[in-house]
Design a protein that fits this description.
This protein is mostly helical. 76% of the residues lie in helices and 0% in strands. It has 14 helices and no strands.
Length: 242
Amino acid sequence: MSLPKPNWGWASLPFLLLIWIALASRFPTYILPQPWDVAREALRWLGDRSLWQHLQASVLEELGGFCAAVIVALLLGTAAGLSSRFRDFISPLNSLFMAIPPIAWAPLIMIIFGLGYVSIVLVIFIAAMFPMAVTIQEGVQSIRGGEVRAARTLGANAWQLLAHVYLPASLLFVTAALRIGFSQGWRALVAAEMIGASRGIGWMVATGGQIGNSSRGPGLCHCRPGRYGVAPALCRPACALR
């Protein structure tokens, strides 16, 4: 009986921590703080009610842009997967918007719509929608024609095909698209808040850099809901079907 192979994944974080400590010992704290300085700053902000206010503002912006992106991505991705003509039409647009970093749209959007909620939501929408649409399109295209023909033989109409064939068969791709979109949206959110917001996690990181408090950034960058709850939950329905 062979022994199970050890899993060395647990060693990556302690290794990274040791590298961090070694590098931080060569720089002043205001340039590269030690891990315990970051932990101390994080605990201070956790005890401060203002952190929750900024986190709430960021979460509301993320949900606004992400939910709008999900609706549009489902429509565009499904249509592109079913229609080759529509796929050819939208493919250049997908390539264009995915090639340009979402944060590059932020200055133009903020000039047009001003600083605040609407501009940040639009940046999140652009960051999340196109990767999700492409992933959903690939999921719809991966469905075998035999399944569709069998359902049509049994008398299924277009809506029944969509609800009982295309959606269940592409569920793994849909959940993967949701995770990708949420993560991309949160990254764009933090970057947009650093440029043109008066509150939020990104604004706190930016102000920390301006006052020379580099301990604030690493701790606040881990305040991502999808890291601990939302994103992992998105893949559970698909995993349960496997």
